[in-house]
Write a structure and sequence with these properties.
about 20% strand; Rossmann fold; 6-stranded parallel beta sheet; 7-stranded mixed beta sheet; 2 domains; 13 helices; alpha/beta; about 350 residues; globular
Length: about 350
């Protein structure tokens, strides 16, 4: 497709009104834009609670943060602020709200569209569109938007710039992030304890990370009771967490934004997957995904990422656990054994394929 016609020093807005991990997976598109228009002013419009994942991103000139729950007056004020302020506005989603902001903000407007009546309406207001294809990895979706713009792909994820912090172990350490956002992505507390104890027996310090929310801290209190780990949950911002992950011997976590961040930082990353389809959401390794993730596999490796599953015939169901709700258990995760996880951890610790830059603090 021909390169989209915008000024040589354009103002560009990228709209990503999704969760943390989704925003991180948008950074290859932003990197593609920066390479195509090195003198552009590139801003991102994101929810305020996801802005930290873009901290220090040198491909961006600015981040516009909006509250996840905003009043009508706040929405109107933002629309007025954005009105035709950009030469190019790109929505990274087909939803009504992000597409509306792209239409408002850009003189030239690009977005994915759904194959239904609402998509037909949106096409009338957009200069170029991307047809949504099923079964496509989120990063590939972003790179297909680069194709629509007629620019070269940059497949690298860009993590926050590492920042210094206090409290990291002096010697080699691993990082475990046991708490996903939702219950249906949780592994067993006994499994986390057994893996942590096995790593301590190998002479490695174990750093446990997590968020500051009271319910998450309470969950981690239960998981780590009686286990020799260094708790840093709630103590680090995203840039500091990037610094911690960049020096870890290995990272272990469930399907959550921190696992995507660990992979982007170059850490040998062991990702525990249950109902989620790796073909769509498997962590993106450093250097890109040369071979797509399979839907199931006991242990799959792509670059610096090892993906672990205990597959039932229904895995991956892409549903919210066995009870179809956020607070559900997932039998495929409950059945995942510490031994299987440790197979992947041992491979990650010994592999020479996980080549990564050392984060500077």
């Amino acid at each position: 497709m021909s390169r989209i016609d915008i000024p040589p020093r354009p103002r560009i807005l990228v709209i990503a009104l999704r969760r943390l991990g989704d925003v991180l997976l948008t950074t290859p598109l932003i990197a593609s834009l920066r390479k195509a228009w090195p003198e552009a002013t590139i801003d991102a419009l994101v929810f305020a609670d996801t802005a930290g994942i873009l901290a220090g991103n040198t491909d961006l000139n600015g981040v516009i943060a909006m509250p996840p729950r905003r009043t009508a007056a706040q929405s109107l004020a933002l629309a007025a602020k954005l009105w035709r302020g950009y030469d190019l506005a790109i929505s990274t989603q087909s939803g009504d709200r992000p597409t509306f902001f792209a239409i408002i903000a850009g003189r030239v407007r690009v977005a994915p569209v759904e194959a239904r009546a609402t998509g037909s309406i949106k096409r009338r207001f957009l200069n170029r569109t991307l047809d949504i294809a099923p079964g496509v990895h989120r990063v590939e979706e972003m790179l297909r938007l680069a194709d629509v713009l007629g620019i070269a792909r940059e497949s690298r994820l860009v993590p926050p710039r590492a920042a210094p912090f206090d409290g990291a172990p002096d010697g080699p350490y691993v990082v475990i992030h046991a708490a996903p956002m939702f219950r249906y992505k949780q592994w067993t507390a006994s499994g986390w304890r057994e893996v942590a104890q096995a790593l301590r027996a190998r002479g490695l310090a174990v750093v446990a990370t997590g968020g500051p929310a009271a319910d998450e801290r309470a969950y981690l209190d239960d998981v780590w009771r009686g286990v020799d780990v260094r708790r840093m949950d709630g103590a680090l911002n995203w840039a500091q967490l990037a610094g911690l992950l960049g020096r870890a011997k290995v990272f272990i976590g469930p399907d959550t934004s921190v696992t995507h961040l660990a992979a982007a930082c170059g850490a040998p990353t062991v990702a525990l997957f249950g109902p989620t389809d790796p073909r769509l959401w498997g962590p993106w390794p450093v250097g890109g995904l040369s071979q797509p993730w399979a839907d199931t596999g006991a242990v799959q490796q792509r670059g610096n990422v090892w993906l672990v599953q205990h597959a039932f015939p229904c895995t991956p169901c892409q549903l919210e656990g066995c009870e179809r709700r956020l607070g559900s258990y997932s039998a495929c995760l409950d059945a995942l054994s510490p031994r299987q996880v440790m197979v992947a951890v041992e491979e990650a610790l010994s592999s020479q394929d996980a080549l990564r830059p050392v984060a500077k603090t």
